[in-house]
Design brief:
By secondary structure, the chain is mainly beta. It has 2 helices and 12 strands; from the N terminus they run ββββββββββαβαβ. The chain has helices at 129-139, 154-163; strands at 2-4, 10-20, 28-36, 39-41, 63-71, 79-87, 92-95, 98-101, 104-105, 110-113, 144-147, 166-169. The strands form 4 sheets. Strands 3-2-5-6 form a 4-stranded antiparallel sheet, with no helix packed on it. Strand 2 and strand 3 form a beta hairpin. Helix 1 (129-139) packs parallel to helix 2. The radius of gyration is 20 Å and the shape is globular.
Length: 171
């Protein structure tokens, strides 16, 4: 979604690129030239990654998807913006009576958290507490965590991706 607050349509381009999240060369890039109408406008881009490195509980490989917006109108203000998000490629399904991650049968070993903490309960006095329970669950051999009484913070979901923990979140 592009938000154009100038009050006039602008011509520009969106460029989407994918690279390993840990660093390295860009794997793929696509660009889209378009007009950006005043207000919000939605633009869809599609990219194919040949033979992606799949995320798994034992190898939580992540990619970084970056979208760069560039608008340059002669005599007008030039705008540039960039947003990135990390993601993993994975397929999780229930098939023939078993859970499968990337086509391989997996036995779920899940712990749960109420996402409550001492001294403050919802917002811990020590931000590291948001990560510590998840780290402990992984080191004890769990491969999934269930958030039962509070929604996971985005930083916790990112940490689960880094650790190789599946997430079951109840809202």
């Amino acid at each position: 979604t592009v938000l154009n607050t100038t009050g006039a349509a602008a011509r520009g381009s969106l460029t989407m690129s994918v690279a390993p999240a840990a660093g390295g060369n860009t794997i793929e890039t696509v660009s889209l030239k378009n007009d950006f109408a005043p207000g919000d406008s939605l633009h869809e881009m599609e990219m194919c990654i040949a033979e992606p490195h799949l995320w798994s509980i034992d190898d939580p490989y992540l990619y970084r998807v970056t979208v760069h917006l560039s608008v340059d109108d002669p005599g007008e203000v030039t705008w540039n913006d960039e947003q990135s998000v990390r993601c993993g490629f994975r397929d999780f399904q229930f098939k023939d009576g078993y859970f499968r991650l990337n086509g391989r049968r997996i036995f779920l070993r899940s712990a749960h958290t109420g996402n409550h903490y001492p001294i403050g309960q919802q917002i811990p006095h020590d931000p590291e507490l948001l990560r510590r329970d998840l780290y402990y669950a992984k080191t004890m051999g769990f491969n999934m965590v269930r958030f039962i009484a509070g929604v996971a913070y985005p930083s916790q979901l990112d940490f689960c991706d880094e650790l190789g923990l599946l997430v079951y979140e109840e809202s």
